[in-house]
Amino acid sequence: MGVLNVTPDSFSDGGEFLEPQAAIACGRELVAEGADLVDIGGESTRPGAEPVAAALELERVMPVLKALASERDAQFSIDTSKAAVARSALGAGASFVNDVTALRGDPDMAGVVADAGADVCLVHMKGSPRTMQDNPHYDDVVSEVRAFLEERLARAVAEGISEERIWLDPGIGFGKTLEHNLELIKRLDEIVAIGRPVVFGASRKRFLGALTGRPERERVAGTVAANVLAFQRGASMFRVHDVAENVDALRVAAATFS
Ligand code: HH2
To answer: pTM, whole model, 2 decimals?
Structure first.
């Protein structure tokens, strides 16, 4: 899953792809580098980010999605927690909703996903982006994330979303300290054991900076290491900014499994 942030304030690439032409070019490149799915987002979820109105989110993402979906043979996902944004994106060629609130952000979201027969990713997040890094605490982060994802999975199915369409994500960096992120990577198999495919999003994140001392743009090697470990522990999809490097690394890792 290649990341395409059409925002002024995303943590590693904010402002870079706010112009539609720049975003479309980035989307083409993600596909050329081997992304199966391009995840288009118009609202940053970085720690401290302010919410964005649906109209502005739509204004950012729709021209980009429409252009890419008309010309590229790839799948598109919409990174949003708003039902109105998801509905428009699904109507314009997206087939996947990436909801970091796990259907808690908008009461209409589950119905929109169910009606469209779309895939959905349910992400664990403690609190909201504005508050999530204010001293997060867990007794056992892996058990709590697992219980949360099991509850959200059951709720999504109860709301009419087909179980085969549901992906789960432990939400690396969403209300987690360095130790929490590392524990989740170490014991990712316990999340995989829920029985639905796991999405893993460590790309360029802060914990990699804490471990390597490097700024966002220089965290590719750290990202690759985290993804290969997550792959080994059973993750199925990898949300990344640097597609080419991660595709190579995961191809090599996958070859050792055959
Ligand atoms: N992380 C971010 C955004 N969306 N979705 C999933 N499923 N998993 C993640 O780990 C995840 C996500 C944050 O990264 P990014 O999109 O690069 O930054 P921002 O939220 O600032 O736009």
So the answer is: 0.97
